[in-house]
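Quick one:
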Amino acid sequence: MTALIVVFIVLSLMGSALWIKPSRRDREKMNLRMAARKHGILVQLTSVDLPDKWDKTTNKVSVSAYRKYRAKPLKDFTAANLYTHEVWKHEALCDGWFSSRSIDLEQTTKDLLQRHKDVFLAIEVRPEGVSLFWTERGDEQTVEAANQIIEALFRLR
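Output:
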């Protein structure tokens, strides 16, 4: 009986230790966030409102925002929203991406956007900086692509 009690206590302690250990997916997310911080990207857990095709309703999605801020907000800058789904009043930026205003991007940036249209959900370009929203399904090459996209949009004036 004493041995059974000791085994039960040991198993309950092991269960508690395993409960606080991060899962494999959590460790992958931590690695992605550390790679983003090496590029000077701030990571924030948030949600984004994605409009439907007719811009009547929005769908709130929990995501991670990878953000880069400007030292000084731009003056006379028109904000832009980029989505991976069609919204009737937005123009096509490239295959699979639609923008709320006309944006002139290099072909390499358009290629990155097209390649990652299934990974990234939306991008906001504001006078204060650029935010890229995604669910962190990828690897360090995806973070590198996100940084290149953010940097290209960061240069917009």
